[in-house]
# Entry
Amino acid sequence: YRYSIYTLRLMTQVTTLTLFSFKTNKFWAFQQMGVAPLRLKNIEGLKFYKFLGTGGGQGFSLRPDFSTYVFLGVWEDLSFYQNCLQKHPIFKTYQEKATSQRDLILNAVKSHGKWSGQNPFKTKPGLEAKGNHKAVVITRATLHWNRLFSFWKAVPAASKAIETAQGVQYYKGIGEWPFIQQATISIWDDFEAVNTFAYKDRAHADIVKKTKQMNWYKEDLFSRFHLISDTTKSLDS
# Structure
């Protein structure tokens, strides 16, 4: 699924999600969660970034997935991402050690809340209704310490709700720190499917209601994007 290169060049800010999968070198990949962020400072065109681990299975789980790691970046434009991915030593090493790489290029259309004290995703009013794009949703939260048990007790219901949702193509739990800082990525047929799930699915509505009642989150963010490009390549030598 790919958008025209001409249009991508015209775009200003883009958000990228780069998923690296590993069959071997899993301990190296795990170590990078603490090492890689320190090696990616002062990169030209990079406005915001996070290295993220993932949850086991397709959904959201306390069990980590040690075979998949995600780099999220917000860039002034696509060329800065392409240049960094091709030339920066950390990404060249990732590509040498991983078995596959999936690149999602996103254009933010709606975002509210904060991630590490800021909302990194610049949006344009009215953009959601334009174009026939697949939709991507990123949610992210930092949990209150004294709400961890009740939150994780509710996670299986949340995972089951999205698993049975109409129009969802892919979903994965991601996060910066296990148990405390959690996020999700999901890809949908379109925003109509997202809205149906968000506003009409009873199980999801119950979870949203409980979120407010239980005051789980110290900080949270909810963002919607157009999926501009989705490509996967094998890195096996």
